[in-house]
Amino acid sequence: MGNVMVIFRVMPESTETDLEKIKTELLKLGSKKVETEPLAFGLNAVKAYFVVPDAEGGAEKLEESVKKIEGVSEAEITEVNRMLY
Q1: Distance CA 59, CA 82 (A)
Q2: Domain assignment of residue 16, given as a range
Q3: What is the pLDDT of residue 85?
Q4: What are the C-alpha distances in Å from 74 to residues 12, 14, 56?
Q5: What digits encode the pLDDT tens for the residues 39-78?
Q6: How far apart are the C-alpha atoms of 43 and 13, rounded to whole Å?
Q7: Which of 10, 17, 26, 81 could anchor a disulfide with 31, C-beta 3.0 to 4.6 Å?
Q8: Residue 52 lies in a domain
Q9: Widest Cα–Cα separation across the chain
Q10: 84 located within any domain
């Protein structure tokens, strides 16, 4: 069994939400990379990249942890890619 790359789009509660704090918390959860993604009208999302074992429920557990971060309105998995070594 290998690993998969899981990419999340994390939406802040408002345009006033501190995205740097959200990024820091995502890195603490084990994100390999975080970046800001402009959406519209001054609203930005955070794109977070995680590597997790290819096991049932792994990505969903991580999604629940991401949703619990203070300032996060919504988090969704946008991509899951099998890692090739």
Answers
A1: 12
A2: 6-78
A3: 66
A4: 7, 11, 22
A5: 888 889 999 999 998 887 778 889 999 999 999 999 999 9
A6: 10
A7: 26
A8: yes
A9: 43
A10: no
Using CA atoms, how far residue 41 sits from 8, 54, 76, in Å, is 21, 37, 21
Q: What total number of domains does the chain contain? A: 1
Work out whether strand 3-12 and strand 72-82 pair parallel, antiparallel, or are unpaired.
antiparallel
pTM for the full predicted model = 0.89
Q: What is the pLDDT of residue 29?
A: 95
Share above pLDDT 90 across residues of the chain, in percent, rounded to a whole number: 71
The residue to which tokens 């939406």 are assigned: 11
> CATH code at 73?
3.30.70.60
Three-class DSSP category at 42 = coil
